[in-house]
Structures are given as C-alpha cells and as structure tokens.
Write a structure and sequence with these properties.
The structure holds two protein chains of two kinds. Chain A is mainly alpha-helical. Helices cover 80% and strands 0% of the residues of chain A. The longest helix of chain A is centred in the C-terminal third of the chain and has 32 residues, at 94-125. By secondary structure, chain B is mostly helical. Chain B has a single domain, classed as Fumarate reductase/succinate dehydrogenase, transmembrane subunit (3 helical TM bundles of succinate and fumarate reductases, Up-down Bundle), CATH 1.20.1300. Chain B has helices at residues 19-49, 52-62, 65-92, 99-124. In chain B, helix 1 (19-49) runs antiparallel to helix 2 (52-62). Classes of the chains: A mainly alpha, B mainly alpha. At the A-B interface, helix 2, helix 3, helix 4 and helix 5 of A face helix 1, helix 2, helix 3 and helix 4 of B.
Chain lengths: 126, 125
C-alpha cells in the first residue's frame, strides 16, 4: 500500500496540455519536408553528376547549403517522431523500449549533427 | 447460447485486404525505410566533406547493383510517403473518410507514386 496521494503518484508522469505536440510536430515537419524533399529530388535528378567535384560544388553553393541544412535537421526530427511511434508499437519489454527510444534519439541527433557539420564545412570553405 | 457460427471480428486469414490497409502499412514501411536511407543521405554529405578518397569509397558502395536497387527503392519510398502524407493531411481536415473516397485516394496515391518515381529516374538519367 502506498501512502502517496493520487496527485503525487501522477505528477511528472505525463501529459498536461502538451498531448498534441507530437501530432503537430509530425504534421508541420511533414509539410516542410514535402517542400524541401521535392526541391532535393529535383536537384538530385538534374545534377550534372555525383562525382566528388560535382557533389562538393553543389553542397557548397550557399542556397543549396541552406536548404540542405533545413532538410537534414527537419528530416532528423520527423524521422525521430516516426520511429518513436514504431518502437512504442512493436517493442514491448519496458527496459528494451526505453533503450530503443534512447538509441533512436542518439542516432538521430548524431546524424543531424554530422549533416550540419559536413554542410557547414563545405559551405564555408567553398 | 450458441455463438459458434457468429462472425468474429475481422480475421486476418479470411479477410480480403482492402487497398486502404495496404497503403496504411506501406506508409509506415516507407517511413522506416527512409529513416535508414537518411543514414545514406548523411553519408553522402559527410563523405563529401571528408575528401575525395573517402568519397570514392561512398560512391563505390552506391555504384553497385544493390546500391542502385536501394536508391530506386528509396526514391519510391519518398514519393509514396509524400503522396500518402498529403492524403493524411487531407484526412486531418475531416475530409475523404467515406469508404469509396478512401479506396479511390489509395489507388490514386499508389499509381501516382509509381509515376513520380518513373519521372524522377527519367529526368535523372
């Protein structure tokens, strides 16, 4: 038997007024990615080639660097939200679930940081 | 009370797959596929920033049969997830939920994503 009050048991355990933030984050980043993704698809399709010089020149172009930054960070965020739901749906053990969510968060942050670093390096030295 | 002959809730082994079920599963599958594809996108950026030798290794990996199949798959995943994502946004406004409407938009999205993928590779090559 617990002597804690009902309120004390739930404090800090979850939603109060932010229950729809996941939903909204997913929609808004999705709309952004529709635009950024189509830009990238068009750029990739019309690029003169994917050799080293072509790629470095493309990424280093200021407008491309800017849009690639937005694309990478937004994609990392949108992907994290999506993978989170998949993990919550299919990974059942409590410990394993926490570990998977943590791993997913670290992996997405790692990828976002790597992308930002690479784009800045090429964008500034170009 | 005899309830042996009553229909059970939709049972996967006897249930005809509605097309809306396929698009729902595909949306999740293409999303997970692109989460993996994101690693390759970042790999392209990072290896380009790491110099010509590292970049040559990246292109060597991508310029294989498996690499090409994966790239075509990721382009399809992008166009499907994009088209079906817009379908979800329309649903978010409360529209298009009638059974016939949902089936029609499912087929539309399936065809459109293949057309867009073909157009993409048509422009690319």
């Amino acid at each position: 038997m617990s002597l804690r009050s009902p309120l004390g048991r739930v404090l800090g355990l979850g939603t109060a007024k932010d229950g729809t933030s996941h939903f909204w984050g997913q929609r808004v980043s999705g709309i952004a990615l529709a635009i950024l993704g189509l830009w990238f698809a068009w750029s990739a399709a019309t690029m003169p080639g994917f050799g080293y010089t072509e790629s470095v020149a493309f990424i280093g172009e200021p407008i491309n660097a800017l849009l690639l930054l937005l694309l990478s960070v937004t994609m990392a965020y949108h992907s994290y939200l999506g993978v989170q739901v998949v993990i919550e749906d299919y990974v059942h053990g409590h410990g394993l679930k926490i570990a998977s969510l943590l791993l997913s968060r670290f992996a997405h942050l790692f990828l976002a940081a790597a992308a930002v670093f690479a784009i800045l390096k090429l964008g500034i030295s170009a | 009370m005899n309830n042996h002959d009553r229909p059970l809730s939709p049972h996967l082994s006897i249930y005809r797959w509605p097309v809306t079920m396929a698009t729902s599963i595909l949306h999740r599958a293409t999303g997970v596929a692109m989460a993996v594809g994101f690693i390759v996108l970042v790999g392209w950026l990072f290896d380009a920033a790491s110099g010509p030798d590292v970049y040559a290794g990246f292109i060597g990996l991508m310029d294989t049969t498996i690499g090409c199949v994966l790239l075509v798959g990721w382009s399809y995943a992008f166009f499907f997830h994009l088209a079906n994502g817009i379908r979800h946004l329309v649903w978010d406004t409360g529209r298009g939920f009638e059974k016939e409407q949902a089936s029609r938009s499912a087929w539309f999205v399936l065809v459109l994503s293949i057309v867009l993928t073909a157009a993409f590779w048509g422009v690319a090559s």
